[in-house]
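User: Please fill in residues for this 89-position structure.
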């Protein structure tokens, strides 16, 4: 169904979708790195097995797909890929 004529809901929007959880700069990279380290530390302390889904939830993502999308970003690529490899151990 198309929007009704005169619909001004989207006027003035410069972006679409939800804002990113982490900024694409050094501060965001630092935050993601710290959260990954915390996840593995807590999993080890609690005797739990680290999982990709658990990592995604701990980072504040609503799905594994979002984690995969962040792994494609240049800023986060190395950290997230290494964390995902660490889960496979």
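Assistant: Residues filled in for all 89 positions:
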């Amino acid at each position: 169904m198309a929007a009704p004529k005169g619909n001004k809901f989207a006027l003035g929007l410069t972006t679409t979708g939800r804002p990113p959880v982490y900024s694409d700069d050094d501060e965001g990279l630092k935050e993601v790195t710290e959260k990954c380290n915390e996840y593995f530390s807590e999993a080890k302390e609690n005797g739990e097995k680290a999982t990709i889904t658990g990592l995604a939830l701990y980072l504040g993502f609503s799905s594994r797909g979002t984690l995969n999308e962040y792994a494609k970003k240049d800023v986060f690529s190395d950290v997230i890929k290494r964390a995902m490899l660490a889960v496979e151990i």
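For context: The chain is about 55% helix and 0% strand.
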